[in-house]
Each structure stands twice: as C-alpha cells, then as structure tokens.
C-alpha cells in the first residue's frame, strides 16, 4: 500500500505543484479565482490531497463530454459546495457541504447535464445566496 501511495504521489506531483492557471468566476456580485481543470489528469486529481482551499478560491472543471459527470470526495481533507453549470453558464444544480469520505465514497451525480463544475469551500453557496438558475460569468 505504501508503494502505491508513493507511486501515486510521484505520478501526480507535476499537477499538484505546477503553476496553475486562474480564471475569475463570478456569480451574482461575488467573484473568486478558480483553478482550471480542463485536462483529464487535472479533472481526475481535482482538489484531492490538499489540506485546504483559500476562501477566495475554487476549482472550475471544464467538461469535454456531453453526458453527466459524477464527482466524489475521495482523498479530500475538507468539505465543499459543488456547483454544476450548464452550457449556457447557468447553475443547474448545487450540492452543499459535501463531506470528505473515508472508506466508502458515493458518486455525486447531478440530475441534469453539465458543461462545467465549480468546487468551492463549504458555506460559500449559503453565504452568497447562490441558487440554481443563477448566471455564472467567466
């Protein structure tokens, strides 16, 4: 098991420590800087293995397929709000305060198709009164 963890770390180290591309993402009157996860490798790694996320940051997943995409909280260290966004940049669904999982990690599957997913710290959605139907700008 230890060899697997070391190998995994070495394989994904360039993604974890590489300089990241940031994009301003705004909903209503609130903006944050989001790391862009557009490649398959970046989307697979997501925010795993990080201890925290600065309060003014998020991660924007750019999905390159038409079907619904599931997410999970495996190897996460902190809870998230997950915001699914359609092709017109309108929020289609939100899951709030999604907790990290330890042994069994359920898939988080949206009801509708999404072209983008924004992950932010838990509490962000409630604090800024974000809801399905809100327009996202980036």
What can you tell me about this protein's structure?
The chain has a single domain (20-137), classed as Jelly Rolls (Sandwich), CATH 2.60.120. A 7-stranded mixed β-sheet has the order 5-4-6-3-2-1-7. Strand 4 (80-85) and strand 5 (91-98) form a beta hairpin. Helices cover 19% and strands 30% of the residues. The radius of gyration is 15 Å and the shape is globular. Mean pLDDT is 83; it is low at 1-17. By secondary structure, the protein is an alpha+beta fold. It has 3 helices and 7 strands, in the order H-E-E-H-E-E-E-E-H-E. The chain has helices at 2-17, 40-45, 124-127; strands spanning 22-27, 30-37, 57-62, 80-85, 91-98, 116-121, 136-137.
Unreliable runs? 1-17
What is the average of the pLDDT values? 83
How many structural domains can be distinguished in the coordinates?
Answer: 1
Span of the ends, CA to CA = 41 Å
Query: Rg to the nearest angstrom?
Result: 15 Å
- Number of H/I helices: 3
Enter the CATH topology name: Jelly Rolls
CATH superfamily: Protein of unknown function DUF192
Protein structure class: alpha+beta
CATH class: Mainly Beta
**What is the number of strand segments?**
7
Morphology call:
globular
Strand content: 25-35%
Adjacency order of strands in the biggest sheet = 5-4-6-3-2-1-7
| CATH architecture annotation | Sandwich
Largest sheet: 7 strands, mixed
Report the order of strands and helices. HEEHEEEEHE
Give the helix proportion (percent range).
Answer: 10-25%
Any key phrases for this structure?
138 residues; alpha+beta; Jelly Rolls; 7-stranded mixed sheet; 19% helix; globular; disordered N terminus
């Amino acid at each position: 098991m230890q060899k697997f963890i070391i190998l995994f770390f070495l394989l994904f180290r360039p993604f974890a420590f590489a300089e990241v591309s940031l994009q301003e993402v705004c909903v209503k009157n609130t903006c944050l800087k989001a790391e862009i996860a557009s490649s398959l490798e970046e989307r697979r790694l997501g925010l795993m293995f990080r201890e925290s996320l600065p309060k003014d940051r998020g991660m924007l997943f750019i999905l390159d397929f038409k079907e619904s995409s599931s997410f999970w909280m495996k190897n996460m260290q902190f809870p998230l709000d997950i915001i699914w966004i359609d092709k017109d940049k309108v929020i289609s669904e939100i899951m709030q305060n999604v907790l990290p999982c330890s042994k069994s990690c359920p898939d988080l599957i949206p009801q509708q198709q999404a072209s983008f997913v924004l992950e932010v710290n838990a509490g962000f959605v409630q604090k800024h009164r974000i809801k399905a139907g809100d327009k996202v700008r980036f």
